[in-house]
Amino acid sequence: MVNDNERELDNNNLKNIKKIRVIDYGYYNYLDSQAIYHVIAHSFNENSADTLILISPIETYACIGYFQDLEKEIDIDFCNKNNIPVLRREVGGGAVLLDKNQLFFQFIFSKNRITRDVNLIYQIFLETAVNTYKRFNLNVYHRPINDLQIEGGKIGGTGAVEIGNSIVVVGSFMFDFNYDLMSKILKVPSEKFRDKLYQNMHDYITNIKREFANLNIQIPEREEIKSAFLEEVSKKFNAHIEFAENLEKHELEKLDEIRKKLSDKDWLYKKGKFVDRRVKISSNVNIYEGNYKSPGGLIRITLTKRDNKIADIEITGDFTMIPSDALNYIEDSLKDIEIDYDTINSKIIELYEKFKIQSPGVNPSDFTEAIKNILEKN
Which of 30, 166, 242, 364 has a beta carbon 3.0–4.6 Å from 59's, enabling a disulfide? Predict the structure, then answer.
């Protein structure tokens, strides 16, 4: 139920949205599943209709965020060998796997009719998906800034960007998800990291098929979810849904240009503005791996961070340590601990004293610095 304060928020941040053009492409080729909403955004003018695209790619493909570096994010050799195309989008965020098991919604609205506050943008647009899920007895909620979650698991990621005269918000209804393939398309520092990536995705990312299996009820048809979603969109924006079969003439004329851009090697391989040394599983779960060179040898850490705690940690390296199971004690003691470097250091010192640990050239503070090094560089 929407309270008066929420209505006032919407009224202040939405202006004169009377109709929404909806184009439902069903299953469509992978390139146009990205190109179409880019075309609308780049073509947007004062006479353009606020638009919602519904689309699912026929082919499986990978897509990296605007600021990412392809060669550091994607295992290009694996994708080439397995005929998995890769695209770069103008929306930020991380690398994702897209396939026919996902129904994508892409809002392209006038930036003059929507707040410019990105937190409010997500709050407004994602409410339509949240309410759709709730109509099917899935207690999904919006976890700021841009995740859709259910009982702590992520059921959908989203993105937003301002392109030209438009605000673009994208997301999906994830009917199923290929965890194994997702873990294989990403460039990772080690196979151990890949194993952790797969396990964490399986633990923290869910999908509609899994959730309905948990409820022991039949999954609704796609058309039911589409219909419910469009009703929620109409209700949220107090606007009439107007179906269209295709793009306008001036948009179609721009389609080839955008296809060429998204297919261009220079665009795909352009260097990102920063290098992300983590893999985001959800808004509160991330996996890190990194090295730290101590006087006694290299320390390699693979760490899963959930909220502000170490959910899991593995430590390896080429240093010497006695007793041989000392690392197990350290790893076990750091699981579920708050990420406070003084606390972490004290805990490791305590273990060194308790088990009379010897590690020539490697001190407790080196392990603490190794953890700090990978967390604070991201």
Answer: 30
